[in-house]
Amino acid sequence: MSDSQVEGAASTSGLGSRKRRWTELLAGRVKRQMYSPGTEQKLQESAVHLLRRHLNLNDLLLEVEGAPRKTLCLNQLIDPEACTNLSSSLIGSALRDQASRLGVPVAVLSSRMVASSITQICVSDGEPSHRVLLSAEQRKKLSSLLEVARYLLAHSMFSRFSLCQQLWEVQGSLLLEVVWQLHIQNVVSFQELLESHADTQATVAWLFRNLCLLCEEMEASLYSDIASAMLSDLVQMFVLRGFQKNSDLRRNVEPEQMGQLAFVVLQRMLIFALEALAAGMQDGSPQHKVVKCWFGVFCGHTYDRMISTDSPKRFFSHTLTQVLTHKPVLRVSDAVQMQKEWSFAKTHPLLTGLYRRLFTMLSPEELVGHLQEVLETHEVNWQHVLSCVSTLVICLPEAQQLVKDWVARLLARAFENCDLDSMVTAFLVVRQAALEGPSVFPSYADWFQASFGSSRGSHCCSKKTLVFLFKFLSDLVPFEAPRYMQAHILHPPLVPSKYRSLLTDYVTLAKTRLADLKVSLENMGLYEDLSSARDVTEPHSQAHQDVEKAIAVFEHTGRIPSAVMEASIFRRPYYTAHFLPALLTPRVLPKTPDPRAALIESLRRADKIPLSLYSAYCQACSTAEEKKPESAAPGTKVEAVCAEGPLGPLAAALRELRAAMTDPTQYDVVAARVAVVSERLDAALGRAEEDGSSGGSQIQLSVLTPGLEQQEREVADLLLTCFCQNLIVASGFASPDRQGPWASRLATAMCGRRLFPVVLTRLCQLLRHQGPSLSASHVLGLAALVVHLAQSRSVLPEVPVGLPAPAEGLSVAEFFSSLLTFRTSETSLFCLKFCTAVISYSLCKYSSLSRDTLCGCLSPALVKKFQFIILRLFPEARDPLCPEDTADPPWRPLCRPSADWQQAALCLWKQRTFRELLKEKEFHLTYRDWLRLELEIQPEVDCLSDTERWDFQQWALHEYFLPKPSAAGGCDGDLQVACAVLVDVLIDFRQSSRSYNYSENSDLVLSGCPGNRDIFSRLQEMAAGLEQGPAAPRSCSPPQGHFLFGVFRRRLQALASGWDVAARLQRQRELLVYKWILLGLPPSVVVGRPQAGRPAAPDCTEFFHLVNSELGLLNACSQSGDPSLTADLVLTACQTECPLVLTSALLWWPRLEPELRSRWKRCLQGPLPQELQRLWEAQRFGRSCLLPDTASPAPGPAWLSAAALYFEIQRAGKDRVKSQLERLGCQGEEARYEILSLVFSGKLASDPCSDRLRFSWFT
């Protein structure tokens, strides 16, 4: 102000007061003060304080400077725009001059100047109350200002404390980014600014408000990178100071201000996020943005610069504890009732995401231990605890066993001390983990039975423990879901007989509760799974599932399932009210009865269907036949139907899974997405997907006619199509070994007890019945899926494929291999593609793993089929490989649109890893394997011509397998061994010609075994080669008979013995094949190989043994009611219809009689029949005629005695013929005539058909 202005102001200040000048006022004030040392210093400090607290700097400068001059003014320095045009040194000089004029320290003046400029910058774009980030223009001005501040600070012309005080005075206008810029530009650090404020609560409130605004602006801001850096720096500082190693916030001591402030801010942000989640915020709301962003700070990369400290780990542990203990208002009874809603898929994704991020800093062992400690020492929020358990077992597979061990320890402690808390925790944890499906944890029913269903359970220790268990189970009854009570009733704990009343009391209570809930055990399905995730299965819904299961069992066994028979007697209400109506659903009956119709007919014949109900069913089917619409043939194209309704959410979940695949390292994210897919499958299938293990029961599958309901097929197609598309997308940017766990996780999700049969049936339809029509992407995708399913074989059931398959069924890998056939050229080419894709994917996916792991992922049968087809189709593959013929696995070339499958197959054949794999014994393509596969070929539709097929078979037999060592699957150069193996395989093939590989109309004739004609021709050629080979030397041991009879004998000995119908039928089928083979080979097969030297009598020992023991009269008689009568009738008929049979018997009687008497006595325990006795008498007559004494009387008929005598004469030699003929005088005329006719004709002695006579006798 001017002196005149001050004078005017003073004249009006009071009545009667005179006007005094400004200098007089000041002089009077000075006179009243006593001068003392330090007064000047105090006055200066007071002046500075006055300037800082009450004075407007601009007005002061105008007052002091007077009229504007050309020199630099301080108000110019305050203007941010002016600062950008001035050098730092000039500004520093001006500040020094102005401070000298004012008599204040230059550091104070410059700090005030900077604070004022910052305030102007923050308010230049409007009210900053809802912003934390600067605009581009503001950021530019601030950068210039901070450059000046750094210059002043470097020249000791700047006060950090003064700046902090000034900034807190204008905190309402202060933007968070300004504070961050001050920190990173090393003007004022975060810690210094925060600690300068005396009001800690106000500081926390300001930080909390700005952090929320920062999180809210994060996604929408154009400067998200700056916002992210700000948040990261702030969180790192808070974690580092709030969770220092020596700080203990629980002690009753005063912690340092910064540590306390950081701890409180982090705590307040977490509580805000948890309360927002509990309140049910909407997606896209401001609260949702804040929570999502704040939970994102728990990503590991935020703490990369703090890796050398333990602060992040302590922070994560503390956060997990706070989450688990936040607002513990839920009681145990609430948890028992509501935990089904807290599964992984039903928990808010932000909360499960927080869990997954917290898990990254702790090992699985530490996590389980921490969870156990929190439960033992705190009151907990059961919703958060159980959702954490679900996330733990889903995202950390190694934690699954840890949880099982923890539960076992809890049970042991509970029964040891009757500790109710441990018991409650164990049951809640098990039920929660079981909700996540069979790939994660055993079903609750399986766990309960394993824990309490045997004498090894902890509950069997004493009466006290039994009382404790049943008291606990009884207390659960009012709150738990029906499926748990059903599991307890149907799989009850093992209880000693003297304490049986404890169990019966509980069962009565549980049944009463089920009745109150209108859930009846009598209405439970025949095959109902007690581990279903849904509380109550409607009887009519379960009945349809029971019908499908019963039909599958009936189709497999040919008998009414025992479960159906039992239900018709013991569970009549469910059987009549639900099962039969579901079975007798009206439909258009097929012309040829299908399994459903056959089951209905079997039940009707067994009087298990009421006549009135069956009549109504027949009438309704007739009506349906009249109204039958003209239907189109179903398509065969694999197409996912993403319709609205249940498939919509499933398709959305699958799309989210595909998005998560972009980062293969995020295992927990993929696991979370797969868990959501599993949850959506429940609604898509129209039934609850159980948490039971898929390995608990066998799958019933008709390979010839696999069928699915429309909804099941749509779900399966959607899953398979998604898998194939995901694989192609993933293979576009990474090789299989770098694609992460998405494929194995999704394949595991398909292994549920109810979903897996659906997927398996659809794969059967595609691979076996539609394989040649599949596109390349489908072939690649399904091949990869087969690899991952085979990897999960330990938790999957075996697959019975129909008689006469092995009783134990096939593993999943073997089943998929069995679906690949070579019967036609199209199926052979598809098999080549599929095998190439499977092996290539396995080699790429598991290239870094051990050889055992790689072998475990590949089916030996599939590898053998690949070897078979590539050797068959490509002659160049039959040439020896050079050492340098190596190549990379051809997976990437197969993923290209213009893939050359044949070239890829040859590339794989030459691949080094694959060649090393073939050295493993289990992957050897043996001679027996090759014969089995070659027998499948149908020559009419073979991709090879007749000449090419003959060339291939000749090469395989004589150049590849015959000289190959037996250890490698060959024949060691032994042609007889090759023939024997061929015969053995041929018999097996014909015996299995009614298996699922062929139609039900196949029979045991040659045309019923496609492809075996060429192989049988090769057998004939090799048998002829054996006959034309060099004769055995004279010094050799006696011949052992033809190899063929050795094969027959070995196989007959291996057959089941017994006289039951099944054993006799099996034996007859085997013998029919033997006769078919014998009739197709040269007659010389039945005799042994001749020795060198003079001709000898043919050795028919082996042949006779086969005929006598298996094909002869004795075998036929033993199966009749009166064996002796049967033998007499047959032999009597032979006298008139076929006398050569009896003549043949007399010829070989010396060898036949001993075995015949022995076997008849041993098997039938009686004397020989009359007609066999007649043969013995004829032979005795012939022999007596050659004796010097009297001859025995000749039995009738005369020609039989004559034949016997003739054979004896032949054995006696020519020298005695005359004397023998003279002895005929004692015989009748007819006998002499017959004998003379035989002697002179000599027909029997030279008839080459004598062997056939012998054969006819036994047929």
From TrEMBL:
GO cellular component entries: Fanconi anaemia nuclear complex
Domain spans labelled Fanconi anaemia group A protein N-terminal: 167-520
Domain of life: Eukaryota
A Pfam family that the UniProt record links to this protein: Fanconi_A_N
Domain Fanconi anaemia group A protein arcN subdomain: 646-878
GO biological process: interstrand cross-link repair; regulation of regulatory T cell differentiation
Protein's organism: Panthera pardus
Ranges of residues in domain Fanconi anaemia group A protein helical: 540-621
Protein name: Fanconi anemia group A protein isoform X1
Domain Fanconi anaemia group A protein C-terminal, residue spans: 1200-1234
Phylogenetic classification of the source organism: Eukaryota, Metazoa, Chordata, Craniata, Vertebrata
